[in-house]
Design a protein that fits this description.
Oligomer: single chain
Number of helices: 10
CATH topology of the largest domain: Rhopdopsin 7-helix transmembrane proteins
Number of domains: 2
Largest sheet: none
CATH architecture of the largest domain: Up-down Bundle
CATH class of the largest domain: Mainly Alpha
Distance between the termini: 50 Å
Strand content: under 5%
Length: about 290
């Protein structure tokens, strides 16, 4: 059982008390309404803080370059505002959301932020792919349509899963939805590894004296490592939850598991990436900083 194994590990690493005490502590918190409320409120506040930070950065960028429309950088921050704001609302209303009678509606509300998170951060993959292709004098006209098509297919498949969950009482729809999210998380991690890695090694070949080379190298390497790791963790945990009820997420009696999971795969990664990408665009905009057509 996932929760018991995790509690066992806590007992061992803490070095205090017995394993049975650690397991009892874990089970006590899982069954405590007070702890559930406190943990979900903490998640709500954390997501709200990240959303506010992303909004502040979006406003700063708009004030710096008001003459440009929706650039990739602005869209990335706007989507962060939406994703984290939606998560904050859902965790703030966790008691109502987790007990919705319509299974399809519950799945839609809980799965949608994960899909939007996928779209938000694969936007970085698109941006890096465009930079890499431009640097290699390769055509980039197909990259943006490919991004839109991939996301469109992902959302279409997910909508079909929600529809099946509405018309069928079988729990297989929930398992398929989890496995589908696990698969797209794996491919998101793979996208970061491929294009982040390509851009990283391309930058390493630039002359050492190149302006901003080291800073950009650290930026690309750090964001690639963070995003690849968080998507791989999501891939593993969501796949595990599809086959093990004790690893279920988004249920009231697993508050500690929810707290650790969402901190690792969304809150910390989002906060770190926003911090790393906090630099404002130059007032005199370069040719690479262009609005989305």
């Amino acid at each position: 059982m996932a929760a018991l194994r995790w509690g066992t590990a806590v007992g061992y690493f803490a070095g205090e008390g017995t394993v049975a005490d650690a397991i009892a502590w874990w089970d006590e918190i899982d069954g405590s309404e007070k702890w559930q409320r406190g943990i979900f409120c903490a998640l709500c506040a954390s997501y709200a803080l990240v959303s506010v930070v992303a909004l502040a950065q979006l406003i700063r960028i708009q004030l710096r370059v008001p003459e440009y429309g929706w650039t990739t950088q602005k869209l990335f921050h706007l989507m962060n505002v939406v994703v984290n704001g939606l998560r904050a609302v859902l965790f703030g209303l966790y008691h109502d959301v987790f007990l919705i009678k319509s299974k399809a509606l519950e799945m839609a509300l809980l799965d949608l932020p994960g899909l939007l998170f996928f779209s938000t951060y694969t936007l970085l993959v698109l941006f890096w792919a465009e930079i890499y292709y431009q640097a290699r004098s390769l055509p980039i006209v197909k990259l943006r349509p490919a991004y839109l098509i991939i996301n469109g297919v992902v959302y279409l498949i997910q909508i079909c899963i929600w529809a099946y969950a509405q018309i069928s009482p079988k729990p297989v729809a929930t398992e398929v939805a989890k496995l589908f999210l696990s698969v797209i998380s794996f491919f998101a991690a793979l996208g970061f590894l491929i294009y982040g890695g390509r851009l990283f090694f391309m930058l390493r070949r630039f002359p050492i004296e190149s302006k901003g080379r080291r800073k950009k190298l650290n930026e690309v390497g750090s964001v690639t490592a963070i995003c690849c790791t968080c998507f791989l963790i999501r891939c593993f945990v969501v796949a595990l939850s599809a086959f093990d009820n004790d690893a279920d997420l988004d249920v009231m009696d697993h508050p500690i598991l929810n707290f650790i999971y969402y901190m690792l795969v969304e809150i910390f990664p989002s906060a770190l990436v926003l911090f790393i990408l906090r630099k404002l665009p130059p007032k005199r905009v370069s040719d690479q900083y262009h609005p989305i057509n």
